[in-house]
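Subject: complex prediction, re-run

Hi both,

The earlier run crashed halfway through, so I resubmitted it with identical inputs.
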Amino acid sequence: MIEGMDKNFKNKIILVTGGTGQVGSFLVEKLCKKGAKVFVIGRDKNNLKEIEYLVKLKKVIFLECDLTNIKDFTKISNSLKKVNFLIYLSSELNKMKSDIIANANDAIDLNVKGVIHLLKITPNIKGIIYASSTSVYGKTNKNSINEKNITNPISFYGCSKLGAEKYLDIYCKYNSILLTILRYSTIYGPRNRTNQIIPILIKKALKNETITLSDKGKTKRDFVYIDDVIDVTMNSINNYQNGIFNIGSGKGITMYKIAKTILKLTNSKSEIIFDGVSNKLNFVANIEKAKKNLNLRCKTNIDKGILNEIKWHKLN
Amino acid sequence: MNNILVTGASGQIGKILVKKFNKNKIVGLDIIQSEKANFPFIEIDLKNGKKLKRWKKILEEVNILIHLASTVNSSQDIIKDGINSIDLNIHATLNLLQNLPNLKQISFASSYMVYGTPKKNPVLESHFTNPENTYAASKLLTEKILRVYSEKMKINFTILRFMGIYGIVSPYIKQAIPSFIEKIMKNENPVIFGSGKVKRNHIYIDDAIDAIITSIKNKKNGEYNIGGFDSPTNLEIIKIINKSLDMKIKPNFKNSENKEHSFIANIEKARSILQFNPKISIEQGIDKTIQKYNDRGYGQKF
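This time it finished cleanly. Structure:
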């Protein structure tokens, strides 16, 4: 037995899609440490980023596959027959694109059809973790949103995530497979390559550019730090919990507070202005279910978390 | 101006619906044109969005979409039927929307199946949605996409979650009511899957058509249950058919593959907001359906 191997991971052959992304790369490193056999699917073998060393050490088997390209699936299908656990994290591609109808077919192709195509070539899967998003909820007037809240996404991206949840639910019930759906709120911290609000503000602050906030900066959002996300995701692999779980901090922070924090931590001379737009898209996740069942703990305060992300952006 | 586009215009509901409008207002669309039409008809497979460009002129005039086109295949087997349901219901809808630049209003035919097994009856629109097959999942996802699109484009959208529609005579329909009528007319025992005791508020075709027309007139956004006001069991339906035909045929029972449950959609939201008022009782609906079979020369000839 390999030293430090965790018994829950000993027999696991895990496939991680989106394994080079922010959550994916940290998770793959952890899984390797635990002694799991890990396959990673990604679009480009020349862009392995943080997990390149693990592929070189042969701790991770990397398979090049575009999940929207059927031809690619046939190439990799033999390698995946033994996989017994799937962690589906792919989705960054469409977060980057603007959420317009012309891109909606692509969001459906990756986030819904991609999953189904993958299930076809992984017949021995016993458990699935699907990384969904709190964007499935859409607009709401409530102070805190739990998993039973109505789901009316306001983006095609949110629709595609919700669609995948529903198709996976049918698949897993029909085949008696464990399904954990993790609805992540906005994740921040090192390796954040998205175009979400925190990295955008950090980049502007570092260049002393003017920061524009809508809704007078009063919009409240739920930001969750990457380490806390990784810990709870590892717990859910360990625990075999069927169901849907919000993964967030459970706290709402205004955009103004975020911007001020970033300016302070970067010693920036950027000015904050308000554009007069009012969209009132407050969102705070109720995380009681994940706290209770998946032992979600938010250990990182926002100042420390943002500082870590700033340090990473300065180096990258 | 032909400004109302009906997709699924060759389908059982579409065929009747298009005749309710002035021929100068309507455009039909389906994968095949089954009947001659005195209005423009677009024969196309919506999976292939590029081909829609050929109809640019006609599609530019459309500002009301009545979206009935859909696959009727339904399966719990995602591997077998999942991709197909996405291509035929979701990609088809997305392709269509991208080719309707002047759209102002959408009415979409969804299904009670988006709810899954009801937690309690009657089922309200706020009930959680837990699709249990590919058909229901693709209908739900289409609903959500239409909602996002309508809100982004600031157009009206009405989603009609239909209960089972009856009163259509067609060799392709395999639902309970027509199959019972056909059997009893032939002096054979109808087959009930399960106990025959679960309740459904089926809706008669004329009332279903009425709901679609009402939704176009009233422009009220949101999801609406559309069902009848009676909630008969299959045993009761067989009794009503026997009474109408003056027969006394008993059903045979077979085990149901799936767990059976009643499903009664609460239609108060559609009544109060859409002004939808179903008029046909189950007895009247069955009489009318039997009349249709007689008109087509079924009945005593068997």
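The longest helix of chain A spans residues 101-120.

- K.
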